[in-house]
Write a structure and sequence with these properties.
The chain is of the alpha+beta class. It has five helices and eight strands.
């Protein structure tokens, strides 16, 4: 798992010991094509990082974007301690590393480079949303 995580942009510069520690806390979750990874309204979701496969983000019954390996979801719900606001469905077989909500905040506080990349990704998403609305 540490090797898989280390290949992802989100965790690219973590030292080996930090990757090993992260790998020891994540769940390896696998989903078949068409399976719901997250349902809208679910509570206590964590950070899901796609290791393999492709997933669709579904809002109000419509797919609004597609996520690929290296992309992540569930972080907003986990960080705000709120229910998930969109569903995520596997478009192919999907493998995710899942950082549970209770583990996420301590991990991000200990790894500022990961926190920065997560914030940058959120800023990109927000900027993209603003362009779509224009």
């Amino acid at each position: 798992m540490a090797e898989s995580l280390g290949r992802l942009a989100l965790f690219t510069d973590l030292p080996a010991e930090a990757l090993q520690a992260l790998a020891a806390t994540v769940r390896d979750a696998r989903f078949g094509e068409g399976a719901w990874i997250l349902d809208e309204g679910v509570e206590n979701a964590g950070l899901f990082v796609i290791l393999d496969g492709e997933a669709g983000v579904v809002l109000d019954g419509m797919e609004v974007t597609v996520l690929h390996a290296g992309m992540f979801f569930g972080e907003i719900s986990a960080l705000l301690d709120e229910p998930v606001t969109a569903g995520v469905v596997a478009r192919s077989r999907v493998r995710c590393a899942v950082v549970d909500r209770a583990e996420l905040k301590p991990f991000l506080l200990a790894q500022p480079s990961v926190t920065l990349r997560l914030l940058q990704a959120e800023a990109r998403r927000l900027a993209d949303m603003n362009r779509w609305r224009a």
